[in-house]
Amino acid sequence: MKRRRFAAALAATGLAATWATPAWSQAAGKKLVIGFAQTGAESEWRTANTDSVKAAAQAAGYELKFSDAQQKQENQIKAIRSFIAQKVDVIILAPLVTTGWDTVLKEAKAAKIPVILESRNVVVKDPSTWTTFVGSDFVEEGRRAAQWLLGHTKNTTGTVNIVELQGTVGSDPAIERKKGFEEVLKAHPRYKIIRSQTADFTRAKGKEVMEAFLKAEGKKINVLYAHNDDMAIGAIQAIEEAGLKPAKDILVIGVDAVKGAFEAMIAGKMNVSVECNPLLGPQLMEAAAKAAAGQQLPRWIKSIEGVFPAEVAAKEFPNRKY
Ligand code: GZL
User: Fold this and answer.
1) Which residues line ligand 1 (CB under 6 A)?
2) Structural domains in the chain?
3) Atom of ligand 1 nearest to the CA of 94
4) Which residue numbers in the chain have pLDDT < 50?
5) Where does residue 48 rank: exposed (0-12), middle (13-18), buried (19+ CB within 10 A)?
6) Which residue of 160, 192, 211, 287 is surrounded by the most CB atoms within 10 Å?
7) In degrees rounded to 5, what are phi and psi of residue 275?
8) Which helix (H) or strand (E) holds 287?
């Protein structure tokens, strides 16, 4: 069948739009339009992440439609549906939790809009509904926290009692930071997690839950492992209000390596922060342009990050970008 006749026949079926829609390209001169469904503004990390994405979109000359879900998955789902209705070229999603995305990601796929996951991953039946995950290896971050603790306490003996402030229940980083931390410690039975509870990645909840831990366990606590620095910083206030010295009476381990953690380490109130890089904007813009142009992408674009103990905090602080 001649191409023209085939196109006419196809148009009659209403599929023409799908078949005929050209993939986006810089050369075409059309501004790339991205819909970004962010979790909220729960932590210093998240604020730095949002700033990085907005700055990178501006620098690239892309239009960014931004939605702050205030830590509610239903708001993220609504935002994705709105982006689909607006026919954006690409959707970036920072999924609050790992599950509950199957239906809306299928809708994005049906609309031929690629979805890029950033800062957290999802668990869905059809993995072809998302294109790539731009973010950290959270299990490795948990392992690094435990490895620091083992090194820091290697010349001690007896039981080491740990309390754990978990991130948002059901979120990828909370699940995997716990997994990595426990994986390393299971070979060292004197290290015991005696209390573990979510404080939702926020300072306020970190203080609140740590107050409860201190009331229940008091001076028995030797270590705090917080899945992010914001909860650790909130917990430090609770430790001081209980008349104890953070980083001395209770070792304080956080994750993210945000500015607040460096300030706490320099003040002698925190022992270490495992870095989780929020400055994903440039990588996300590169991935968005490629996805919109129909180019192949790796399934995981992994962040490069380190570990910052208090001993290096003062030297490193001037170099920090978030
Ligand atoms: C990590 C990110 C986590 C940070 C927290 O990629 O999803 O969410 O570690 C933030 O500070 O709230």
Assistant:
1) 42-43, 45-46, 119-120, 135-136, 173, 201, 228, 230, 255-256, 276
2) 3-135+278-302 (3.40.50.2300), 138-276 (3.40.50.2300)
3) 7
4) 1-4, 6-7, 10-21
5) buried
6) 287
7) -70, 140
8) helix 281-292
